[in-house]
Specification:
By secondary structure, the chain is mainly beta.
Length: 882
């Protein structure tokens, strides 16, 4: 019985010295693929990307037949010249998908010359889906049945590849009139399944047992299944090795057994104890209580009275309640529109508040009702309140009542005096309304001014230096804090977005004090900034508190610095259409990250040769699908989706039906998802290496030494490098001040691949984006497929006797001529393939019956049928007269 079960599976038993490689990130140069030569298993992912200078000849003879398993995912992105994966990975059998790339196990994205996937040995993608997108030459997708490889195909995303109607997909045997490949039904279409014209898609359940002799102690699962486990889903190890990796969980007795929940589906993992966290080989329960700060007051313009109590940070029985929202942001969103308070403003024990700037529009307190019948502004025991408002940008009037300030230990008296002066309450206040001893007693209120001595800017970093500062006792200086954040407008204040529960809109970097012997000014290198972005920056000291004397600190004014421009991201959503046989209309949207001011767009239009397979096959054979091509038209739905306000529909066609709310939401979600995926892809592909620790500020490394995974020289050449043997017919145009152009003087019914590149510098190619691609085909020429000149005939007195009918090929057809139809009377017709025509310059008619005949011929191109020729008459004599 057991033997019959084993025979039902296709078993790959690798009892050999297997080479296990770690994740491979191969880019820039084809020669880097050599690192795969000895890999049988890649324990991780395989990324092949950004080979802009590669040509098809670079991949000839390059093959890695040992590679069989990738445990995570496979990603291919912009590898030029690569036309198929069949030779590169002929034996890749399984992609496990243990870790996925944005939920996908196989991603093929913007592979511009890829014509077929060709992974003919791939039989199983264990987890994750397939994403194949924006590959303009990729065919043999309609011939694949992904359900033979995946458990579920509903999450596959296969769009924006070559139009299926333009693909001359021919499975093995079809050209000979045979059916050799497995046939299945997808969406009602029953057809053979194949990877290419050479390889069928095969079905088979795969059990992979990799029993590698890594050491004499290694076990073989086939022979001792009860003593082994499948670790990480594929590697066979001994059970006690798996146990050695595990930690002991509370409540357990010794090492986990096979029945322990630590072993999930017969697979061991380093730690699987539910509700425990692994730390220093022990487990501890995680007990987290959180309370969401979700209450929002409705936005009001007039408020009768307003009181803030200590309900922002909560504590109970030593259990910390975490507030997930940013309190300052929540308050500003809820109360930021209040302009007038008719009664009074009372702030009591609001320990979370650092500033009242969230009341950004409050300008009047009327005092119609007063706190304790006296006070229109009441502030009591707010331990972290440091600022009321930025008085250089805010004005407040108190029409009636006095102000009360007591036990606000970090609110300096200078801030309170400013409020008195601006609100007009100074003359009304009495002696005990404001306590000088209990306000600001824990703050450094006398601050010296720190001046920046040097500010150097790059596109992703800012180097700061400021003048030295030492308090009277130098030991009181703990260091400096550099605060910075994005600031589109120059209206930032020091305490914007801060609260005492940890929320802060500023990014804070700690800088150690310089050695006393060092005469240089202290400084800091701010990294990982966005190009062409304005930042607000300030520096202040960190001081120790002293009971013996008051320590005076220092801080700088807020300065605004814009980073330099850098290479923009690519243009978005290109669409193309053809309105004539010589023009292509092109539209696109500007980049999401211009990283500067876009100066112009560079549009490069490359003429594409027709698929070489079209020249190989005899399309007159029964069962051969007749290839066709269509010019690029922009349908009304795409036009409305792209731009609803531009040119009105001048044609007489019908309007498309309005979409339902559900359809619109679905479409918006899909667009957002596609953009999110593209952003994720670019972030992963172009991520920079980790920078140094934040506190390492002395002797910062030179600016030019920032490293990237992809070499900049390879990225600056954004124009595709096409095959050397091709004469690259291209049209280049610079577009200024708009996101559209019309490309003229093109060849009729010809496919073009168009690059759109955004630039934010007129002369520096390093300030141009990667290209965004779109394909288009011009419209056909009306008479281009007509056969020129007369049809001629010649009677050949051979056995069997026949008539040789000849005609001239159309000199400039729409695409290429794939066959000719010859009609002759007495009524008959024959199909003449391109291959047959090239052999005879026409065709042979074997006519057994003597008599008068007439012949007409028409050509069929990729655009359809041409016109019939004029009728040619001839007389076929009988054999006796011949």
């Amino acid at each position: 019985m057991r033997l019959s079960v084993w025979l039902m599976h296709l078993i790959f038993l690798c009892v050999c010295v297997c080479s296990i490689c770690q994740s491979k990130n191969i880019r820039n140069n084809v020669t880097n693929l050599r690192s795969l030569e000895n890999c049988t298993i890649i324990e991780g992912h395989l990324k092949i990307l950004l080979m802009f200078g590669a040509k098809s000849g670079d991949f000839q003879g390059l093959s890695f037949p040992k590679l069989r398993v990738v445990t995570d995912y496979v990603l291919l992105f912009r590898v030029y010249g690569l036309e198929t994966l069949s030779d590169l990975f002929p034996n890749l059998t399984v992609i496990r998908g243990n870790n996925l790339f944005f939920n996908y196990a196989l991603v093929i994205y913007e592979m511009l010359q890829l014509k077929e996937v060709g992974l003919h040995s791939l039989m199983n993608i264990t987890r994750g889906a397939v994403r194949i997108e924006k590959n303009p030459d990729l065919c043999y997708l309609a011939t694949l049945d992904w359900s033979m490889i995946l458990d579920s195909v509903e999450d596959n995303f296969i769009v924006a590849n070559k139009n299926e109607r333009e693909c001359g997909d021919v499975c093995p045997g079809t050209a000979q009139g045979q059916t050799l490949c497995t046939q299945t039904t997808i969406n009602g279409h029953f057809r053979g399944r194949c990877w290419s014209q050479t390889y069928c898609q095969t079905r088979g359940e795969v059990l992979i047992i990799l029993s590698c002799f890594l050491s004499p102690a290694a076990c073989i699962m086939v022979y001792k299944p009860k003593l082994t486990l499948m670790n990480w889903h594929w590697l066979c190890v001994c059970m006690w090795e798996c146990q050695a990796e595990l930690v002991e969980c509370p409540g357990g007795s010794g090492k986990p057994s096979l029945l322990s929940p630590t072993f999930h589906q017969w697979a061991c993992s380093p730690t699987s104890c539910f509700a425990y966290t692994h730390r220093k080989h022990t487990c501890r329960m995680i007990d987290i209580h959180t309370q969401q700060f979700t209450h929002r007051l409705e936005q009001l313009h007039v408020l009768s009275f307003f009181i803030l109590y200590n309900h922002l940070c909560l504590a109970a029985n030593s259990t910390v309640f975490l507030i997930t929202a940013n309190i300052a942001a929540e308050l500003e969103a809820s109360l930021g529109q209040i302009e007038v308070i008719k009664g009074y403003l009372s702030i009591r024990r609001a320990y979370a508040l650092v500033s009242l700037s969230f009341l950004r529009k409050l300008h009047t307190i009327k005092g119609e009702q007063l706190e304790a019948d006296s006070y229109a502004f009441y502030a009591l025991d707010n331990q972290n309140l440091r600022q009321l408002w930025d008085w250089s940008k805010h004005n407040l009037t108190i029409e009636r009542g006095r102000t009360f300030f007591h036990f606000n230990s970090k609110l300096c008296m200078s801030e309170i005096r400013k409020l008195e002066k601006i609100t007009g309450t100074k003359e009304r206040n009495q002696k005990n309304d404001i306590a000088a001893r209990t306000n600001g007693d824990q703050a450094s209120c006398e601050m010296q001014l720190l001046n920046f001595t040097s500010v150097k800017v790059r596109y992703n970093m800012i180097i700061l230096k400021w003048n030295s500062f030492w308090p009277s006792d130098y030991r009181d200086l703990l260091g400096f804090m550099v605060l910075y954040k994005e600031a589109p407008f120059k209206n930032v204040t020091e305490f914007d977005g801060q609260d005492a529960c940890g929320s802060n809109s500023w990014v804070i970097a700690d800088v150690d004090p310089p050695p006393r012997t060092n005469q240089e000014d202290p400084g800091y290198l701010i990294r990982s900034l966005k190009p062409w972005t304005q930042y607000a920056i300030m520096v202040r000291t960190q001081l120790s508190a002293s009971d013996e004397h008051q320590v005076h600190g220092a801080k700088s004014d807020i300065i605004y610095v814009r980073t330099n421009a850098s290479k923009p991201s690519g243009p978005l959503d290109p669409i193309s259409s053809s309105n004539s046989s010589s023009q292509i209309i092109l539209k696109w949207k500007p980049p999401t990250s211009p990283n500067g001011k876009i100066t112009h767009y560079r549009v490069i239009c490359h003429k594409q040769e027709e698929d070489s397979d079209l020249y190989k096959f005899d399309y007159c054979l029964q069962g051969m699908k007749l290839p066709s091509r269509t010019p690029t038209h922009l349908d009304s739905e795409d036009e409305q989706k792209w731009n609803r306000t531009e040119e009105p529909n001048s044609g007489g066609g019908c309007c498309t039906c309005p979409k339902t709310k559900m359809e619109i939401e679905k479409q918006q979600k899909e667009i957002a998802y596609r953009k999110t995926f593209e952003d994720y892809l670019h972030n992963v592909v172009f991520e920079s290496k980790q920078s140094r620790p934040r506190r390492s500020v002395e002797n910062p490394e030179p600016i030019g030494s920032t490293h990237f995974y992809s070499t900049m020289s390879s990225l600056q050449t954004t124009t595709a490098s096409y095959k050397e043997e091709e004469k690259d017919d291209k049209v280049v145009e610079n577009v200024f001040g708009r996101e559209s152009t019309v490309i003229s003087n093109l060849q009729h019914f010809t496919s073009y691949k168009i690059e759109i590149i955004a630039c934010n510098h007129l002369t520096d190619p390093g300030r141009c984006s990667m290209a965004t691609y779109v394909s288009a085909r011009t419209m056909p020429e009306l008479k281009a497929d007509d056969i020129p000149g007369p049809v001629t005939h010649e009677i050949v007195n051979e056995e069997p006797p026949h008539v040789l009918v000849k005609w001239h090929e159309p000199p400039s057809p729409n695409g290429l001529i794939i066959l000719y139809e010859v009609f002759y009377r007495k009524p008959h017709s024959i199909c003449v393939s391109r291959l047959s025509y090239e052999k005879f310059g026409g065709t042979k008619l074997t006519l057994l019956q003597p008599g008068n005949y007439s012949v007409i011929v028409r050509a069929t191109s990729l655009a359809g049928n041409g016109s019939f020729t004029g009728t040619t008459y001839f007389f076929m004599p009988s054999r006796k007269t011949r």
